[in-house]
Amino acid sequence: MIVRHLLRTHPEVREVVAAVHYVGASTTRGYGRLSYEVGAEDGIGTVGPAWSGEDESNARFAYDPEIMSGYNLNKLRVVEVELLDPVQVRTMTEDVDSIIYCATDFEGNRPRAVSSLDVALLFRAVANPTKGRVEVEGVRNCLEGLVGGINERRYRDRSRTLSSGSSGAYVVANDEKSGNSRPGPTQFVLVSTSPDAYGNFETPFGEFNGLKRLGEITAMEEFPSISRTVLQMGKFDDNFVAEGQELRYSIAEEDTVVVDGVVNAVRRVGGGVVGGNFVNDGMQKRINRRDAARAAVEALLDEDIEGKKVQVYTTVRKTDVW
C-alpha cells in the first residue's frame, strides 16, 4: 500500500525500490500482494484453469495505457532481499535517498513462524536462531546501508569536484554556518506500532512491544547523521475504520524499561505511565491500513514530525487488549 501511494501521488520520484522477502519454492508468490496493490494486475490479462500445468495456470497481464497510465509502474523496481543479510541490504540501498521501513517478523503480535504455520519460516527460526530480528538488526542493516550509500555518493561528488580543478568546496547537509536545513525528504521513516495496539507476546529474543521499542531506539539514536521519523501506528482496522479520514498525531510516551540490559515494554495494568506501569484507559487508537500507508509517505516531507516519535491514528475505539 505504501508503494502504491508513493507511486501515484509522487510521480516526480525517480525510482521506488520495493523489497520483498519470501521463503518458499516459488518466489513469484512472494510478489503477489505487492503486484495486486500497485495495480500491476489491472491490465489486460489471462488466467488459465487451476488444474493445468504451472505455466498455463499462472496469470498473465499486459499493460493497459487507458487504465494504468497514472500508476507509474515504470518507476517500480522489485527486489527479493534478506534484510538480516548486511551485504544484500547494502546492495539494495545503493543510490537510495530515503527508506520507509515497514518490515516485521510478526503477524499482529505473534511471530510469523507461529501465526502462519509456515514450515519454511519455522525451520529458518529453529535452524538459525541467532540470525537476528527484523525489528532490530534489520533496521540497523538498512540504516548502515543508507549511511554507507550517502557517504559513497558524497565521496564521488567530492572526487569529481577536485578532479575538475575547482576549490573542492561543496554543500553538506544541515549547514550550521548558513542555517540552511538539509534539502530533500526525511531519510528514514520507521513504521512501528503504538503500545496499546497489541498485547505482549514472548519470544526467545524478547517480548513483542520490547522489540518494537528497541527498533525505535536504533532508528532514533544510533545514526545521528540521518534525518528520521518514527511512526507508532494505531491498530490496523480495515473492517470498522473507514478509509480517507484525517490523520491524527500525538507525541509518543516512553513506555520501556531496561531489565538486565534488555529493553522491555512496561507492564500494563489498566492512558499514561504511572509508577512504571502503563495504565490502560479502556480506549485504543486505530487506523485503516490505507491511511497508515498515506501517513508513512507523507512523513517523508512532513517537517513538523521529522526527528520525532509520534503516534498516528484516525479514530479511537474501545480497546480489545487487556
TrEMBL record:
Designated name of the protein: Uncharacterized protein
